[in-house]
Amino acid sequence: MDPRSDHAARHPPEPDDEAIWRWLCDPNPEQAEAGIRLLLNRYGGRVVGGLKARYRDVMSEDELWGCLNEALFKAWRAAGTYEPARSSFGAWFFLIAQRTVIDELRGRHSREERPIGEYDPSEDPDEDATPRTAELVALLDRAIEGLPPLQRAIIRADLAAGTEAADDRLAELHGTSTESIRVSRRKARANLRRQLDGQTGTSTRADREVRR
Q1: Cα–Cα dist 97/92, whole Å
Q2: How large a percentage of the chain has pLDDT more than 70?
Q3: Which residue has the higher pLDDT, 173 or 117?
Q4: In this structure, which topology does domain 129-211 adopt according to CATH?
Q5: pLDDT of 203 over the 80 cut
Q6: According to CATH, what is the number of the domain 14-124?
Q7: 6: left (phi over 0), alpha (psi -120 to 50) or beta
Q8: Domain spans of the chain?
Q9: How far apart are CA 64 and CA 185, in angstroms?
Q10: pTM here?
Q11: What whole-number distance in Å separates Cα of residue 113 and Cα of residue 10?
Q12: How far apart are CA 106 and CA 157, in angstroms?
């Protein structure tokens, strides 16, 4: 027997993105469940790795895996909305996972309000950066790095959420009270405004992000 044939029989080729997508769309629950497992096997580790690189300062690894599990369910429900011409399947799934993390940071109320299926890669805020925007982001990052640890974590969580991250979630994550979170947020914003004003001499987009 040809050993290559034996290896192929024991190790069939991994389904590609199109096959996984079609399984997710299949009305047969068993096929759809298999599609979810394949999606997890193919992209789970890579997606969590990407999320850790962006959100490790504001979410634990266990929380990120929890968001991934929720994103798998969302991807199954939204599979019919995926358009191959607009993005790769992996990028589409990563955006679902990323927005799941953002919704978690914003709090359960806003997460329940987001319609399923509205995941457009063209709306990813990382995709529209200009040189001036990149300069302002770098300026803000340097200012944030100069904050005390709790203040820095709160501001990073707020920026990741696109609004104020949930106080109760931050308090639990950092082992403190919600009042301490609110006080630290006010101090962090005041510190950042002083640093940004000192470096630019005027109000900037980065400053306005902090003031929101």
Answers
A1: 9
A2: 73
A3: 173
A4: Arc Repressor Mutant, subunit A (1.10.10)
A5: no
A6: 1.10.1740.10
A7: alpha
A8: 14-124, 129-211
A9: 23
A10: 0.62
A11: 46
A12: 9
